[in-house]
């Protein structure tokens, strides 16, 4: 059912976590045998092996989602993934470019790929996010008035 509500790339990532990580780690256990200690040991082993916290967090989110579905379907009384065995890693701090950094990027882009340079110049000049800019239609943009609707 997840394939009906998730983007294809997210679904592919879920599938990889299940096949490459979760089944090898927990596949020998019956659903009602899985405990929080199993998940905690998995986390400890993965971190000790050098697995990235963000990747591991996403893998555990996949497991938590599946176990939450099992609870909703009355296949489990409670989820062994709750409370989470790993907290969400903090997002990296973002920093606004200086005017000099933006100019350096645009100069490089104009030499390397002028069409992309125009896109980056548009993004920097308007403050639009990439998805917003790429979703624009010509009817949305009025170049002579220098506005977008």
Account of the 3D structure:
The protein is mainly alpha-helical and 149 residues long. The chain is built from 7 helices and 2 strands. It has helices spanning 2-5, 8-26, 36-48, 53-72, 99-112, 114-126, 130-134, and strands spanning 141-142, 147-148. Strands 1-2 form a two-stranded antiparallel sheet. Strand 1 and strand 2 form a beta hairpin. The longest helix has 20 residues, at 53-72. The two termini are 37 Å apart.
Supply the number of helical segments.
Answer: 7
- How many DSSP E strands? 2
- Largest β sheet strand count, sense and barrel closure: 2 strands, antiparallel
- Identify the overall geometry: elongated
Helix content: 55-70%
Proportion of beta-strand residues: under 5%
Q: C-alpha Rg, in Å?
A: 23 Å
With strands numbered from the N-terminus, the spatial order across the biggest sheet is 1-2
Unreliable runs: none
Structural class: mainly alpha
Helix and strand run? HHHHHHHEE
Ends apart, CA distance between termini: 37 Å
What would the average pLDDT be, to the nearest integer? Answer: 90
């Amino acid at each position: 059912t997840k394939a009906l509500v998730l983007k294809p790339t997210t679904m592919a990532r879920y599938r990889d976590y299940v096949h490459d990580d979760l089944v090898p780690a927990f596949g020998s256990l019956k659903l009602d045998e899985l405990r929080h200690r199993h998940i905690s040991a998995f986390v400890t082993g993965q971190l000790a092996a050098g697995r990235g916290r963000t990747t591991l967090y996403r893998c555990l989110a996949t497991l938590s989602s599946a176990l939450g579905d099992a609870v909703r379907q009355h296949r489990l009384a409670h989820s062994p993934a709750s409370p989470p065995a790993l907290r969400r890693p903090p997002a990296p701090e973002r920093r606004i470019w200086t005017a000099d950094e933006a100019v350096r990027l645009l100069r490089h882009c104009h030499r390397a790929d002028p069409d992309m340079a125009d896109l980056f110049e548009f993004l920097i000049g308007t403050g639009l996010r990439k998805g917003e800019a790429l979703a624009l239609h010509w009817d949305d943009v009025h170049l002579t008035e220098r506005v977008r609707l």
